[in-house]
Every structure is written in C-alpha cells, then in structure tokens.
Design goal:
The chain has no helices and 11 strands. The protein is mainly beta. The protein is globular.
Length: 124
C-alpha cells in the first residue's frame, strides 16, 4: 500500500485549500480499510483530524475541525480529499494521510501505512 499526499501550500487566514491523497494497493469502496487525515505542527504531537471508512464511506471528525474540514473521495481515481476552509494560523502543520485495515479511527497508532506529508502554512 502506498499513499501520496499533495496540495499543501501557503495561504492567508480565512482561505481554503484542498489536499489530495492518492492511494494505491487497494480498491476504494471494497474492503475493510479506513483512511485517516492527520497533521503535525512543529513541537506538537500528531493529531487526528478525520477519517473515512473504505467500504461505506462513513466519516468521523475531530471535534475542533468539524464544520471547517471535510473528507471526500473519488473512487475512480483512488483519491481521498481533505477540504480545509476558514484556515487559521493555528492550522499550520504538515498534513498526512494514512490507511490500514480496521475501523475509522483518529488515533495515529492504528495506521501502519503513511504518506509523506504535505505542508500547509497559514499566515498573513
């Protein structure tokens, strides 16, 4: 299984970004996998943001990002997206996608396969 995250960049507060995660090694919509989005700011622990179950598309979000961040996917492209809106300087971090067999989880230790991360910088 391989994951490739992209879409990060530098934006101003209040702006939006869409991050992409191309996953190879399993078929979207089939299988008991989950895909999660995480971020890690300098000097902080990796934080779970949201996840999506591969079979039924059910999502779960960390409370602090509900309403601002949203996960979607394009099965034909084996790609998952993280839509970031109303970005704040505190959202500056490296964002990662991860996957493994199991239930949708916001805990990083439940995922064995990780993408390389994409940097999001929010500043004025």
């Amino acid at each position: 299984v391989q994951l490739q995250a992209s879409g990060g960049g530098s934006v101003q507060p209040g702006e939006s970004l869409r991050l992409s995660c191309v996953v190879s090694g399993f078929t979207f919509g089939i299988g008991q996998d989950a895909i999660g989005w995480f971020r890690q700011a300098p000097g902080k622990e990796r934080e779970g943001l949201g996840c999506i179950s591969n079979d039924d598309g059910a999502t779960n979000y960390e409370e602090s990002v509900k309403g601002r961040f949203a996960i979607s996917r394009d099965d034909a492209k084996n790609t998952m997206y993280l839509h970031l809106s109303r970005l704040e300087p505190e959202d500056t971090a490296v964002y990662y996608c991860a996957t493994d067999i199991g239930l949708c989880s916001l805990s990083a230790i439940t995922y064995r396969y990780w993408g390389q991360g994409t940097l999001v910088t929010v500043s004025s």
